[in-house]
Amino acid sequence: MTIRPADERGHGAHGWLDSRHTFSFADYHDDAHMGFRVLRVINEDRVAPGMGFGTHPHRDMEIISYVLEGAIEHKDSLGHGAVLRPGEVQRITAGTGVQHSEFNPSASEPVHFYQIWLLPDRRGHQPGYAQKAFPVEGRQGRWQAIISPDGSDESLSIHQDARILLADLKPHQSVRHEFRTGRHGWLQILRGQVRSGETNLSAGDGVSFSDESVLILEGLDDAEVMLFDLP
User: Fold this and answer.
1) Pairing relationship of beta strands 156-157 and 144-148 according to DSSP bridges
2) Which of 29, 44, 142, 208 is least enclosed, having the fewest CB within 10 Å?
3) Cα gap 9→204, rounded to integer Å
């Protein structure tokens, strides 16, 4: 188990945008943190009211967005336009190429969200878009699958043998996840505090697992966690 402390992440402060980079991204570069397995980007972004990212291109990446607070408005070159709110997951398959923009539509409230990039299983997929609301009841004290390679358990599918799971934990509540032989894990603490073994983890912390068969987490206060089960 290797911990990536929240306060050691890269930091981009642009006035309208406050961004924390778990892995190298944009102007932040660290050869020791270029990604983990097929996981390439974990950005925790806070965007000021009425501000956002203008139209920009992506290709050959699976892009996942998850809002914690506020809302983010999405438009893309495929003709999609939608607002993403807390509890909703957005998946963009950039494939052969897509352009999109992301703006905070509120005039008064900031938006706090995570954006995640995973490498696809090959280059050149047809671009695609999906968005889905996942009820909070489905992750209270248990794992809720939001991303998978086959859309199992009512999750959204991606072009990669990876799964993303969410769980909400109350104090003293615990969840368990078993990794198949040869699999790897990344845990991202979205809110609150949890304990793994003798280690306490707080919001923004990340943890990688490569030799663990079982992960057991216990909530220390009201917490939300995101787990990546990776090849």
Assistant:
1) parallel
2) 29
3) 9
Tokens of residue 204, six digits: 């923004």
For 33-88, what is each residue's pLDDT tens digit? 999 999 999 999 999 999 999 999 999 999 999 999 999 999 999 999 999 999 99
Evaluate whether 51 touches 18 at the Cβ level (below 8 Å).
no
Q: Tell me the C-alpha distance between 63 and 131, whole Å.
A: 12
3-state secondary structure of 214: strand
d(CA 229, CA 231): 7
Distance CA 220, CA 200 (A): 8
Q: What sign does the dihedral 64-113-86-50 (CA atoms) show? A: negative
